[in-house]
Design brief:
Blueprint lengths: L2 H11 L1 H9 L4 E3 L3 E4 L7 E4 L2 E2 L1 H14 L3 E7 L4 E6 H17 L7 E5 L5 H12 L2 E4 L6 H11 L3 E5 L1 E4 L2 E4 L1 H10 L6 E5 L13 E3 H7 L8 E2 L3 E7 L7 E6 L1 H13 L8 E4 L6 H13 L3 E5 L11 H8 L4 E4 L1 H10 L16 E4 L6 H11 L3 E3 L11 E2 L16 E2 L5 E4 L12 E6 L14 H9 L5 E10 L5 E6 L3 E4 L2 E4 H9 L4 E11 L3 E10 L7 H15 L8 E5 L12 H8 L14 H10 L6
The chain binds coenzyme A (COA) and adenosine monophosphate.
The site of adenosine monophosphate has 21 residues, from strand 26 and strand 27.
Length: 629
């Protein structure tokens, strides 16, 4: 039995002993009464009765413990020609003062603060400042449209929004202020106060009476100390795509989250305190929350904040330059980033320009890692390339190769085995376990380990409905896949309407809602089709209302623009086919899976319940001009 399997076994047979020991690495203001509280099962709570402050553990503790002069954050921004190190002492000063700004703006413990920011150090400073005073942050990814921001404002009801005047995407400056204004105007919940970081690349005019300038506010502010909060209190809400246009507010607690993340840094990523660690993601995603901000800081690492892209900022050598310049030992990104680099530099010419001798491992997640990309990265870098699988709901990996425990053999196509705390079961439609090699719904037997969502924001019912109802006693991951004879997990597809575009999780149901609201559209479907760079891309199929006179090309353009305006550029929605009818079962269910197979040139079985098989040929013909089918 491998060491990882042994740890898994212990974590499942003695969860309180296992996670209680892991929690000893943190500073607790009050020790917990119970490691695992199952009194309200299936709503489990970790470290009930304990009091902790996540910001204290991520910042103050390291200043007190001798890391004051060590860089906590290195902000590396090729798009603004900036490289700036912020020491733990400086970070503490900034965070404590921004906590003062929030307090002066009326933010109290338990209040929500929305953070809508690009990849600048002020984003983690604002997050940590919330944690410091027990406020709950909700970071919204910059690539979402105002409508998505407005939905989150209405659900989280923030007291303050923290934003910046602009983001920078490659060569383009994206003004954020108009997006912010539009979202605030659209939301029903009224936001009284915004703190705005002015960036020289694109300053904005502040709205009098509502907006405060970040620098002015910081200059006037006084530092505020950490407030102990309940271990079970929410640290943040992170909205993620569900099966409708209404995103799910995933709640993260303080105590369980800090415990699991700290454990993961040593045992999964194999990094020691003090070492530079880099997650090339965005603070708006869960990878950014966990592995740009919280985990590396909890572990006393130097975290790299990279405001750039894998290619074009300025070239496909950007990642190697950052690894070499900042002596990064371990990096984490999405496979799509490596596909982008490989496309521009297939022979890895740029890698040879940099000294990467200190680099130990590359971790990939966020989407299925195709074996080709994994092999290419391994060959080019000469270090283990580790695929690991997780989701916004868990905050850390469900299946991983725990390199800090031992390096298990890498099997391309598999994110390895269950991480400690996760009792992964593959179930059939009746909830029965399936044999090795057979595909089923990937579930986790309750209780979930620390850091996993205790519920959805103010919606216990949706939490139960979405995750726990399908198979009582199990958490439904939404992914389908299988385990092989060695217990390695393979993630094959989703069982819902979620697609993964360049490592970004999106709901096709949400896009269908947007298309359906166009006055010319009678019916529609959105499917995720294979894309060599981004993994998947959304493709719309629409049936127009009888009598619509507008030119089809014009409608297609309007639909593309509508998804961009209402969901955001990140949806990368570019292709729409106008069809006469959609294939359906006799009971009226649209056959999205079959259309996806047609688009991807895959073999498909004629569905037994199809209403009219001839429609499938029509779909194939309609997709051909778009390069599909
Ligand atoms: N603010 C505003 N707009 C944003 C944005 C942000 N934070 N992030 C992305 N966008 C925009 C992009 O500019 C692009 O707009 P466009 O349609 O006008 O060109 C659109 O959203 C799609 O973005 P993206 O999917 O990132 O495509 P891209 O072509 O700009 O870059 C990759 C492609 C592969 C280089 C990039 O997606 C990447 O590096 N991804 C991997 C890493 C990652 O972040 N994974 C997340 C989870 S780990
Ligand atoms: P997100 O919540 O945005 O992190 O997306 C989570 C989803 O991305 C998972 O449920 C999977 O569908 C997919 N995913 C994440 N990591 C992997 C991986 N290593 N392999 C396959 N799919 C993955």
């Amino acid at each position: 039995m491998s060491l990882q399997d042994r740890l898994l076994e212990r974590s499942l047979s003695d969860p309180e002993g296992f996670w209680g020991e892991a929690a000893e690495g943190l500073h607790w203001d009050r020790r917990w009464d119970r490691v695992l509280d199952g009194s309200r099962a299936p709503f489990y709570r970790w470290f009930a009765g304990g009091q902790i402050n996540t910001c204290y553990n991520a910042v103050d503790r390291h200043v007190a413990g001798g890391r004051a002069e060590q860089p906590a954050i290195i902000y590396d921004s090729p798009v603004t020609n900036t490289v700036r190190a912020i020491t733990y002492a400086e970070l503490l000063d900034q965070v404590a003062r921004f906590a003062g700004v929030l307090t002066d703006s009326g933010v109290k413990r338990g209040d929500r603060v929305i953070i809508y920011m690009p990849m600048v150090p002020e984003a983690p400073i604002a997050m940590l400042a919330c944690a410091r005073i027990g406020a709950i942050h909700s970071v919204v990814f910059g690539g979402f449209a105002p409508n998505e921001l407005a939905t989150r404002i209405d659900d989280a009801k923030p007291v303050v929004i923290v934003s910046a005047s602009c983001g920078i995407e490659g060569q383009r400056v994206i003004p954020y202020k108009p997006l912010l204004d539009q979202a605030i105007a659209q939301a029903h919940h009224k936001v009284e106060s915004c703190v705005l970081l002015q960036r020289p690349q694109g300053p904005a005019e502040l709205t009098p009476g509502r907006d405060i300038d970040w620098d002015d506010a910081m200059a006037k502010s006084r530092p505020v100390a950490c407030v102990p909060v309940e271990a079970t209190d929410p640290l943040y809400i992170l909205y993620t795509s569900g099966t409708t246009g209404q995103p799910k507010g995933v709640v993260r607690d303080n105590g369980g989250h800090a415990t699991a993340l700290l454990w993961s840094m040593k045992n999964i990523y194999n990094v020691e305190p003090g070492e530079p660690y880099w997650a090339a993601s965005d603070v708006g995603w869960v990878v950014g929350h966990s592995y740009i901000v919280y985990a590396p800081l909890l572990n006393g690492n130097t975290t790299i904040m990279f405001e750039g892209k894998p290619v074009g900022t300025p070239d496909p050598g950007a990642f190697w330059r950052v690894i070499s310049q900042h002596k990064v030992v371990t990096m984490f990104t999405a496979p799509t980033a490596f596909r982008a680099i490989r496309k521009e530099d297939p022979d890895g010419t740029y890698i040879k320009n940099y000294d990467l001798s200190h680099f130990r491992a590359l971790f990939l997640a966020g989407e299925r890692c195709d074996p080709d990309t994994l092999k290419w990265a391994e060959t080019q870098l000469g270090v283990p390339v580790i695929d690991h699988w997780w989701q916004t709901e868990t905050g850390w990996s469900i299946a991983a190769n725990c390199v800090g425990v031992e390096l298990l053999p890498v099997k391309p196509g598999s994110p390895t085995k269950a991480a400690p705390g996760y009792d992964i079961r593959i179930l059939d439609d009746e909830g029965e376990p399936v044999p090795a090699g057979q595909i089923g719904a990937i579930c986790i037997k309750l209780p979930l380990p620390p850091s996993c969502l205790p519920t959805l924001w103010q919606d216990d019912e949706r939490y139960e409905q979405s995750y726990l109802k399908r198979f009582p006693g199990y958490y439904l991951t939404g992914d389908a896949g299988y385990k092989d004879d060695d217990g390695y997990v393979y993630i094959m597809s989703r069982i819902d309407d979620i697609i993964n575009v360049a490592g970004h999780r999106l709901s096709t149901g949400g896009m269908e809602e947007v298309l359906a609201s166009h006055p010319a559209v009678a019916e529609c479907a959105v499917i995720g089709v294979h894309d060599a760079l981004k993994g998947e891309l959304p493709l719309g199929l629409v049936v127009l209302k009888a009598g619509v006179q507008t030119d089809e090309e014009e409608i297609r353009k309007e639909l593309v623009q509508k998804v961009r305006d209402e969901i955001g550029p990140v949806a990368a929605f570019r292709h729409v086919a106008v069809v006469n009818r959609l294939p359906k079962t006799r009971s009226g269910k649209i056959l999205r899976g079959t259309m996806k197979k047609i688009a991807d040139h895959e073999e498909y079985k004629m569905p037994a319940t199809i209403d009219d098989p001839a429609i499938l040929d029509e779909i194939g013909d309609a997709l051909k001009p778009l390069g599909y089918g």
